[in-house]
UniProtKB/TrEMBL annotation, chain A:
Name of the molecule in the record: Periplasmic nitrate reductase, electron transfer subunit
Pfam families xrefs: NapB (PF03892)
Gene Ontology CC entries for this record: periplasmic space
PTM entry text: Binds 2 heme C groups per subunit.
BP-aspect Gene Ontology terms: anaerobic respiration
Organism: Alginatibacterium sediminis
Keyword Membrane: no
UniProtKB/TrEMBL annotation, chain B:
Binding site for heme 1: C51, C54, E100
Biological source species: Alginatibacterium sediminis
Record PTM: Binds 4 heme groups per subunit.
Main subcellular location of this protein, as a coarse class: membrane
Residues that bind heme 4: C171, C174, H175
Positions with a binding annotation for heme 2: C78, C81, H82, H180
Protein name stated in the entry: Cytochrome c-type protein
Length: 154, 192
């Protein structure tokens, strides 16, 4: 019995000490009043999430902002499966299917190996479409900036 | 011997009134109980809980799709698409499912790897079934008659008003993998 009480006290004490220690640790990582992209929320607090962006259904694609910008996706891509078994995007945008589907065909740059050699099929490094192409949304820039398009795109 | 049979037959053909009433009542009550239990069994094996008893990983796959989570909160459960709603067809499918119970017992797809290896076969079976019944389970909710092409996107319009309207194609010909991940699609029409 005595032993049980002893171990109980020990466990409680450990919990108390580690709790205070944890609290110290938390405040040790405060942002020190510096405001960043996530606002002035302390690091150990969860900031209020931004409003979700609505995807724009089937609109004209936004114009490119710089040369070689991967075009934005002007439609929903919810549940588009792109993995080793299947690529939903290519079922419309591949060379073979683009003519029938009327969708823009992927460019020939997708067939190039890292060394610039032409391959017979889409290069593995260009296979995962959503790595570069994202659905377009009506979103404000995260930080104010004075970016301007190059002349040829203006 | 013949006498015995004759007496037995007489007894059967002229039962006492109470006996007739009893047998009828028994048949009636028994009938109700059997029918109720039978239909309850059919319903119980149609619930999502029942399906996920064995198919938990697949049931999970639907959760990110439009048939589980969407703006209006209408959703489909497994049996809405995988079990016919019409009673006779439903019964036939349930009897076929006894083979699947056997597969479950011998552990045909009891690990994720085994399931993944068989995904193509399982998907093809379901595509065939839907192709043969003209995608009836899709049409239970998505009725062609009431589709308003004017609120469809131009590409959907083009496909629905031609190939689907002619009956040349059925829903599942294009809409594959709408609620599950797809198997390897190489060599399947319409896929890269």
């Amino acid at each position: 019995m005595k032993n049980i009480i002893k171990s109980c006290i020990f466990i409680l004490a450990t919990a108390l000490v580690s709790q205070t220690y944890a609290d110290d640790e938390m405040t040790g990582y405060s942002n020190g009043g510096v405001e960043s992209l996530r606002g002035s929320t302390e690091l150990y607090e969860v900031s209020d999430p931004a409003m979700m962006k609505n995807h724009q259904a089937d609109r004209k694609p936004y114009e490119p902002q710089f040369v070689f910008q991967p075009p934005l996706i002007p439609h929903q891509v919810r549940n588009y499966e792109v993995d080793s078994k299947v690529n939903k995007c290519l079922s419309c945008h591949s060379f073979k299917n683009a003519r029938d589907s009327g969708a823009p065909r992927i460019s020939v740059t997708h067939f190039e190996s890292r060394e610039g050699l032409a391959l017979a099929d889409v290069s593995p490094r260009r296979y995962f479409c959503l790595q570069c192409h994202v659905p377009q949304v009506d979103a404000d820039p995260l930080v104010e900036n004075d970016f301007e398009k190059v002349e040829s795109l203006q | 011997m013949f006498n015995f049979l004759k007496r037995f037959w007489q007894r059967l053909s002229t039962p006492s009134k109470a006996g007739v009433g009893f047998v009828l009542a028994l048949g009636f009550v028994g009938g109700i109980m059997f029918w109720g239990a039978f239909n309850m069994g059919m319903e119980a094996t149609n619930t999502e809980e029942f399906c996920s008893g064995c198919h938990a990983p697949i049931v999970e796959e639907i959760q990110s799709t439009i048939h589980y989570s969407n703006r209006s909160g209408v959703r489909a459960i497994c049996s809405d698409c995988h079990v016919p709603h019409d009673w006779t067809d439903k019964l036939i499918r349930k009897v076929q499912a006894s083979k699947e119970v056997f597969a479950h017992l011998i552990g045909t797809i009891d690990t994720p790897a085994k399931f993944e290896a068989r995904r193509g076969h399982l998907a093809a079976r379901e595509w065939d079934r839907l192709k043969n019944n003209n995608s009836q389970e899709c049409r239970n909710c998505h009725e062609f008659e009431y589709m308003d092409f004017t609120v469809q996107r131009s590409r959907s319009q083009a496909q629905h008003s031609t190939a689907l309207a002619d009956g040349e194609k059925t829903c599942v010909d294009c809409h594959k993998g709408i609620a599950h991940q797809l198997p390897d699609m190489s060599g399947i029409e319409g896929w890269q």
